[in-house]
Amino acid sequence: MSQIFVSLFPLLALICSGFYLKKKAFFADGFWAGAEKLNYYVLFPAMLFINLASAPIALSQVKNILLILVLVFGLASVGLYLLRAIHRTPSARFGVYMQSVVRFNTYIGLAVVAALFHQPGMTLLAVILAISIPTVNVLSVLALADREQMNLLQIFKALCSNPLIMSCFVGALFNLSGLPLWAGFEHFLKQLALSSLPLGLLCVGAALEFNQFKTAIVPLILNTLARLLFMPALAWLICIWLGVPQLETQVLVIFFALPTASAAYILTKVFNGDSQLMAAVISVQTLCAALSLPLVLWLLM
C-alpha cells in the first residue's frame, strides 16, 4: 500500500497545486486557458504519437483490448439507455450521465500507469486510448444531441479534427509502416511528452469547482459510484472471464477506474446540456478518485 501511495502522491500533489494556484489567482485566467490549449493541441498529441509510433504492439493485445472495451462500453451504454427510457431523461441531463460513466481523465490515467507499470503499461494504455477516445466522443455527442440536432457528417468532421484522435491514428500508422523515427525528432517529441503530464495535472486541479455540490445530489452520487466502482468492477470481471493476462487486466481496470474528463464540461456547454451538473460531477469524481484509485490499485496489486 505504501508503494501505491508513493506512486500516486506526485499526481495528487500536482492536482492540489493547480487548484491552489487557481484559487489564489497566482496566474491570470488567460494562463490556464492557454496551458490547456497548448496541452490539448501540442504536448498531449506528441505523447500519444511517440507512445504508439515506437511501441512493440502485439496483435493479440489489440484484440483483447478491443473486445473488452466493446463489452464494457457497450454494456454501460445499453444500461444507461434503458434507464433513460424508463425515466424519460432529457438529452441535456442524459448527456451528462453518459459522459460521467464512459469518459475518462487521460492525464491521471497516464500518470498512474507511468508510475506503476512504466513503458509496458504506457504502451497498453496508448492502444486503449487510440480506441477509446473516438468511441467515447461519439457516445457523448449522440447522448447530448437531440434527434433533430444529429448530423453524422458533422460528428465525423469533429472526430477527424480532434488532435488526440489524429495523433493516435498517425502514430498507429507510423508503427505499422515499420519506418524508423529520426533520433533528433524522437528526442524532441519525448521532451514535449514529458511536459504534458505535469501541466495537464495542474490544469485538472485548476478546473475543479466545488460550488455546485448542492445540484442534484442523488444523480451526483450515483454517477460517481458508477464511474469509480461499477465500471472497474465490470472490466475486472470481463478480464477474468476472458482469461486476459495480468498486466493487461491491471491497466484496463485502472483505465475504467479513472474519473471523468474535464473536457466533458466544454462539450456539455456546446450542446446546451446541464453544464452545472457536469461541472459538479467532474469535481466530485476527481476528488473521490483520490480515495477510490488507491483502493482499486491495492486490490489489483
From TrEMBL:
Membrane-traversing stretches: 42-59, 66-84, 96-117, 124-144, 164-185, 216-244, 251-271, 277-300
Entry keyword set: Cell membrane, Membrane, Transmembrane, Transmembrane helix, Transport
Location of the protein in the cell: Cell membrane
First-listed, main subcellular location of the protein, grouped into a coarse class: membrane
Gene3D superfamilies reported in the protein's UniProt record: 1.20.1530.20
GO cellular component terms attached to this protein's record: plasma membrane
Record has Transmembrane as a keyword: yes
Record GO biological process: transmembrane transport
InterPro entries given in the database record: Mem_transp_PIN-like (IPR004776), Na+/solute_symporter_sf (IPR038770)
Membrane topology: Multi-pass membrane protein
Pfam families in UniProt: Mem_trans
Family: Belongs to the auxin efflux carrier (TC 2.A.69) family.
PANTHER family documented for this protein: AUXIN EFFLUX CARRIER FAMILY PROTEIN
Protein name per UniProt: Transporter
Source species: Acinetobacter calcoaceticus
Organism taxonomic ancestry: Bacteria, Pseudomonadati, Pseudomonadota, Gammaproteobacteria, Moraxellales
